[in-house]
Structures are given as structure tokens and as C-alpha cells.
Specification:
The complex is a heterodimer of chains A (247) and B (384).
Chain A (H helix, E strand, L loop, with lengths): L1 E7 L3 E8 L2 E9 L4 H14 L7 E6 L11 E2 L2 H13 L3 E6 L4 E7 L2 E7 L8 H11 L3 H9 L11 H13 L4 H20 L7 E5 L5 H11 L3 E2 L7 H8 L2
Parallel strand pairs in A: 1-4, 4-5, 6-9, 9-10
Antiparallel strand pairs in A: 1-2, 2-3, 6-7, 7-8
Chain B lengths: L14 H15 L4 E4 L7 H6 L2 E4 L8 H4 L9 H12 L3 H5 L2 E5 L3 H10 L5 E4 L10 H20 L5 H23 L10 H11 L5 H20 L10 E7 L6 H9 L3 E7 L4 H4 L10 H10 L10 H13 L4 E7 L3 H17 L3 E6 L6 H14 L1
Parallel strand pairs in B: 1-2, 1-3, 3-4, 5-6, 5-7, 7-8
Helix pairs in contact in B: 4-6, 7-13, 8-10, 9-10, 9-11, 11-16, 14-15
Amino acid sequence: MYQVGIDIGSSAAKTAVIKDNEVIKTILLDTGFSSRKVADTIYAALEAEGITRENASYVATGYGRISVPYADNVVTEITCHGKGSHFLFGENGTVIDIGGQDTKGISLKNGRIMKFVMNDKCSAGTGKFLEVMTNRLGVTPEELSALAQNGNEITISSMCTVFAESEVISLIGKETPREDIAFGVIESVVNKVVSLLAQVPNDKYFLTGGLCEDNYIIERLSKALNAPVTTTPLARYAGAIGAALAC
Amino acid sequence: METLELPKSFDEFVDARKAGFLKVKEYVENGGHLVGMFCSYTPLELFDAAGVSVVGLCGTSNEPIADAEKVLPKNLCPLIKSSYGFAYTEKCPYTYFCDFIVGETTCDGKKKMFELLNDIKETYVLHLPQSQKRDYAKEIWYQEVKLLKEYMEEKYGIEITDEKLREAAHKRNEMRKTQMELYALQGAVPPAMKATEVMSTLAQGMFNFGVDAQHASYKAKLDAAKEALANGAKPVDEKAKRILLTGCPSTGVIQKVGMTIENNGGVIVCLDDCGGERTQKMLVDENADDILRAISDRYLEIHCSVMTTNEGRVANTKEMCQKYKVDGVIEMVLQACHTFNVEATLMQNMCDDEGIPYMKLETDYSTTDSGQIETRLAAFIEML
């Protein structure tokens, strides 16, 4: 039997297939406008490789979890990130998931979720904040990190994404170097994430979600938390892996 | 028979609202008297004894908030904005047709809102002491209750006799016992009902004219639930996680929080806000020599976060967690409710000490955060 976990987030749809306790396949797609449509695309892609309702069970998670008609069950992304992270890291610690619209901190002990926190309505400290800023600066997320590495310290003080964007526009107007603005943008996200994590402190942290391959962000988070932050390329799929494990 | 005027925008109202207005209009035109109130500290026996109906006017809908914000600041509790908004927009028949409104100084936001509300509708404010601790606290409250009694006697040209107060105390006590029985049904495993049904019954019951009709509506719900139980009905999944809902008044978030809990594998077994057992379990000593004092004493026993210090609330919640075999505590704080928000730390500490999982949600009456609230509630229930 295949266990298929589908994590439809606000910007990316992640799929992980587990067989015999091993992740044998992952798929990454843009969620796009319709969660339902991307769910159908995922089903077709798996079907093409012989993974079908006949030999697989499906669990959906993420904000689009209710739009996967063939899912046997739906589980929240918090539980799934907890399960997936325990599978990937196998240690006690706090999971940091920086998602497209939510940022979560999940405290894990012996594979169980002890406590979790999630950002409020506001998008500060989420992937959305970075997305808005990269668009404004005309760079990719990778380029933003590369620029920030060479930036001087400046502070973007607005917490609100909309106001922070105005702040960035005025910095651009003042001809502040892009490197410095990039530094300020990333520090803003890091600080907001760290303040959220104050409610789930730990001596070890694991980063999951779309930023897990960004070494610069990992380094800044680790510095601000004063604790090691580890990750793995598969951590982008932590939610999907957790969902697959929940099958 | 006097003829009353309907609000200016009556013709634009939907049918249900029109019907509501016509019902209340008819009641008042036929000599019925109606008083609006807000808070569980309001001594209801006084109104019963005066022969006037009393209804709760706590706003529970997002609808009039945008209008209320033309006058009130945005960063204020939704209950205060909604209550004021209904008066301001003339959209609530009870606010519109009542003789006057009884407010109380439970929080700064309400206290100051009442000053503005008074320009729309006569508003009488009870001065609640800040604490039950001082020796003279009970005396303050007794004097306040007495002043309200005198105010009504003068307003209506009547005498509120001890005999009538005693009769009212008896009827209210009987109704409280029915409410307690209704709550107790949730102690069963699995509980007898979805609590959102109980919440809706309690909320609707408030709009009956007079204590007898209100009591009858609760009794009907209780009897129906008991009968269903006797017939083997199990409306709640045995595996549903048992939740105690505490914090601010929750009627305005029955959908957003209550139903979301109960649609995601949880069931509310104890309603620990100000509509629940916490404020209803105390009875008035019907045989006391001084019945007015017995009434005022009973109300001052209520543990609300506006009191300092307020250990009684958390201690009671701890007791409720055992009584109702609670798996997790969810605290709902309405945006900008400082007293419950700060006191939440004490609630969390108690839960941590007892090993009961706890989560606090801060929200309002809008739907902007429904998706997030659902994810949080569902994840919390999955965690239990």
C-alpha cells in the first residue's frame, strides 16, 4: 500500500508518497487559483505512475485540505508538520514552519505535539511578507538572500506587510542600496518569527516549509534564537509527509 | 392603547426582523413593559417583581459594527460595538422599544459607551464595586441594587414589595435549577447534546417576555434532551474530545468558535463563560429576612475578570474540569477585552499545573479569521 499525503498550502501544493516507511516520491506544484484543480493534477500524476485509489490511501492537509475530493481523511497542517518533522528529525525540539500565509511553531516531545503557536490574522513573519518584498525589489527569493548577505544593517520597523511595503518604497526612493533593504526585509521576518517562538522555546529547532533550502535565513534564525536550526531538503514536504503518515 | 412608531428604515428590513419589531411593538402597545440589560450582575428579580420584562441586549452580530465605528473607536470589544450599533442603527426591536436600559460598570469600554448610548436611549448604570474583598463591598452593591429598585418604583409609580421580590427570587431560583440540570446533561459520556444547541437555546430564551416564558423554553429543551437520551439517542460521537469553553461572552461566536469545535471532533461539555454554570449556580436565599440584601449578595458572588483579585473564577473552572471530565480548555477572548485577556495567564497557569491542555483564541465577530480559527481549533483537538 502507498500512503499519499497532500499538503495544499496557500502558495504551493506538496505531495509525498510513503511506502514501507520510506518517502519514495515527492511532487511540488503551484497551488494556483483552484485547490480542487491542483488536487486533480496530483491525482493524475500519481495515477500515471500506478498509484491509484486501488493501492493507496490519501490524507489531505493545508488550507486547501477540504478541496481534495478523493482524500480518505483530512488532518490539520499543524498535526501533519508535527508528524512529518518527527519522521524527518526524530528528536525533541520546536518545528518552525514558515508558510505562505501562516507561520507556526510546534513544540515536539517524543513525537507528540505539546503546544503550538500560529501567527494571528497579520501576515508579518510569513512567506507572504517575503513574496511581497521580493516582487517590490524585482528579485527571486534566492537573490534576496544573496543580496542580504552583503547588506548593511537597516531596520524596517512596520510590522504590517502593507505598511512595510510603503517603507521599502520610500527606502528605494532614497536610493538605499538593495542589499541593505534585503537585509532589513529578512531581519523583519526573522524577528517576527522569533517573537512568535517565544511561546514554544526549545534548545533545538527544525525549519520546515518553503524556506528550508535558504541557508542565509537558517543562519539568521539560528543566531536570533541562539540555538541550532537544522533542516533537510525534504523538510519542504514535512506537512505532506506527516499527512502520508496519518494514512 | 398608545401607538408606537417603527424605525425609519423598517421597510428595508428582512421579514424576520420586521416580524420581530412587530412582535415587540404589539407587546409594548398592549401595556407590556420592557427593560434592556447587559450583564449577569444585573439583579433580574427586581424587574420580575416590578412586572416588567427584561431582555439581554449584548450585541452578538457583526452587522451593526461598521455603523457603530462611526462613533466608537475601532479598537474596542465587538460586544460593545455591536450593542451600541444596534441602538444606533435602530435594528434591534428590544433596544428600540425598551423603556430604558440598565448598564453596569463592568469594564471601561462599556462604562463609557453607556454615556453615549444614553443619548439614544435612557441608560441607567449600576456602579459595581471593583472587588468583593473589602468589608463594605457587599454594602456598596446592596445600596446600588436598592437605588435601582427606587428608580423603578418612581419611574413606574409602583411599589416593589418584599413579597414580590421573594416570589421573583423563587421563580428565578427554579429557572436556575433547570439551567443547572441542562448543563449537567453534558457531564454524561458521551454528552447529551452538542453544546451549540444549549448555547442557542439559552440565547433565544433571553428574548421571551417574562421569567415564566423563559423558564418554559429552557424546560422544553431539557425535557426534549432527557427524552432523547432515554430513547437511546447519541447525538455526539463517543470519541469527541471534551472541551471547556471559557473567557468572554461567547454568544457572538457560536458559529465561528462553538460550531467549529463541534464540527472538528470536539464537543463543548462545559460552557464556562458568563452564560454558564459559573454565574447561574448560585441561588438567592428565598427565606432571608432581608430579601433585597439576599438578592444583592447573590449577584456579587459572581466571579468576573473585572474583579480584583478574582481567584474564584479560575478555582471554579478547575472544579468544572473535573466535574465534566474535560480533555482541553479553550479560552475565547474578544478583541480588546483586557480583563479576560490578562486573566488568561492565570487560567493557563492553572491548566498547566493540572496537566490540562489549554489554548487561547483572540477574535471578534467578523469572518476575516475564520479559516485560521478553524485550523487552530482543529489542530488543538487533534493534539488532545
